[in-house]
Every structure is written in C-alpha cells, then in structure tokens.
C-alpha cells in the first residue's frame, strides 16, 4: 500500500514540475523581442507609446522598439 502511495506522489510531483516548465517557456520566449510581428502607427515614435501600442495590437508578450527605417523612425513590434 505504501509503495502505491509513494509512486502516486512521485508521479504527481513530476507532472507538477512538467506543468510549471511548460507554462514558463512562453513567458521566457516572449521577452526576447527578436521576432518581428508588425508595425504600429505611432507618430512621432516614442518608446513608451510604441511599446503600449504593440502590447495592445499584438498582445502583452510583444515589445515595441523605435527603429530607423530610411529617414524616419518607425515603431516595430517584436516578440
């Protein structure tokens, strides 16, 4: 009986750890800001406004970066 209980607790612990790891991976990947998602129409491009626009338009895991494109700054949203 104790052997079954011990195996059950061990299996539950492994499932819990796996669940925590799977949930945390998207959060870690979301903060890299390397994958281009699109542009936001922010004129003039200011860091705070760009970041907010990207979060509203493409989701909270995205970040906005003002980048030089030709002669003007454009708000690029990255994930």
From TrEMBL:
Membrane-crossing residue ranges in chain numbering: 6-25
Source superkingdom: Eukaryota
Keyword vocabulary terms for this entry: Membrane, Transmembrane, Transmembrane helix
Name of the featured protein: Defensin-like protein
